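[Solved] Which block belongs to which protein?

Original post:
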Amino acid sequence: SLAGVDALLFDIQDIGSRTYTYISTLGEAMHACAEHRKPLWVLDRPNPIGGRLAEGPVMPEQWRNFIGWGPMPVTHGMTVGEVARFFKDTLGIACDLHVVPMRGWRRTMVWSDTALAWTQTSPHIPGTVQAHLYVATGMVAMSTTNLSDGVGTTLPFEVVVADFLDAPRLAAELDAQRLPGVRFQALAVKPFYGGFKDQPLRGVRLHLTDAHAFEPLRTAVTILATIERLHPGRIAYAEEKIIGRHWGETTLPARLRAGEAPADILAGWRDAMQPFLDARRAALLYR
């Protein structure tokens, strides 16, 4: 497919999560361009959740897959241009890479600071709220078989719901933990398509109150831990390979069932992140 191409242009808006596959496509394109000696130009775009946030386990080679393509945590705090530079250096991809940088973007910016209009990046990311909440609710739902992130309703990635949750109690317990940048509201929904079609579900809606302070993966772990505490043994976790492909490690369900505090789980991941942060630093284009 590259035979008649002089150069490949990557001009796609990402949302800042390792599991959102546009950067995986970027990595595959880099390999293809290296193999066929075609230059790759990346027109850089903002990371809508900012350029500082990095959370979660770094994906090891053991679990590398299309939703965990490179050795980075779940949120990585890079633009697509910086991700390309990171892939080139850390994975040794001999690609003739050219990044066209943005003007005026800073690492502290989230999407609302850019004054740019949002264009829907995929069917369930119609707005910037979903871009911010995608990790918080998506990682919960993708790690389980009986919790929904709202895909199939008019609130994709804005909720965590199931058929067994005590919605008012869950909302109160989560609000009491004062997670930064988010508040919780009890609600009931009935999805009109998808895996939970026509099932009455209850749970919480996430209201983003401060996009700069919000920590999506911390929020995801806290939601799972709180549900485990309120409804012991009711979460049906996905099989080990699904957990590994999403999280980059497989111990999380057992640690949550054992009652380990979210702060301790997150601290262990932070302690192991320094090699990634060192490699990331060389790839950054903006202050």
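(Second protein starts here: sequence line, then its structure tokens.)
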Amino acid sequence: KLVAFGFSDHAPILFDPSRPHVFMSPQQLSDYLAEIERLKKVYSGRIQIYKSLEVDYVPGVVSVDSEHIRNAGLDYTIGAVHFVGYYKKGRPWYFAGSERGFARGLEEIFHNDIRACVQRYYNLVREMVQLHPPDIVAHLDLIKKMNPTGRYFSEQAPWYKEEVVKTLEAIASAGLIMEVNTQAYYKHGAEEPYPSRWVISLAKALGIPM
């Protein structure tokens, strides 16, 4: 029996007021929040409805401490990193979009240095956890999205494991929850969730709730 359901769409991000928003618009956010409040009343006594947002961490731009997030009256927050660096003209790099977009960002921003790219990603996750902690950390190893065949890096490489362990330790120290995201199965045809099973095992050993 399903006793609780939480809505957690992606929160608005306004990198530049002159450019289109990323994810939902501020107006859509108002409608989204109002609809969840309506559903809470409709299903009161039958199912617990929770109001949440998946909030990106982009230094100097948005976090769970941003005004529009704090004013949303959320029951919990999910924190995520989807943007790692900027192109030369200032456009943020959304690394989780397409294989072509990933290859372009890796080349133009990190000069094809995948290790520097991955380390920057995990550094941003740790920064989020330490400075603007959400209740839940989303899809911890999303940076592997374009790497199902190991084309860019090996998850068994010592440097990669070191980044994961440091990030898990930061999550454990902050007392946060870690999300297990199954999108990799039904959307990307992968054999592992986000995060991979070996990461889940390490998280369990560190006492991180999931």
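Accepted answer:
You had them paired correctly. Confirming on the second one: Helices lie at 26-42, 67-70, 99-110, 114-131, 158-174, 183-188, 197-205.
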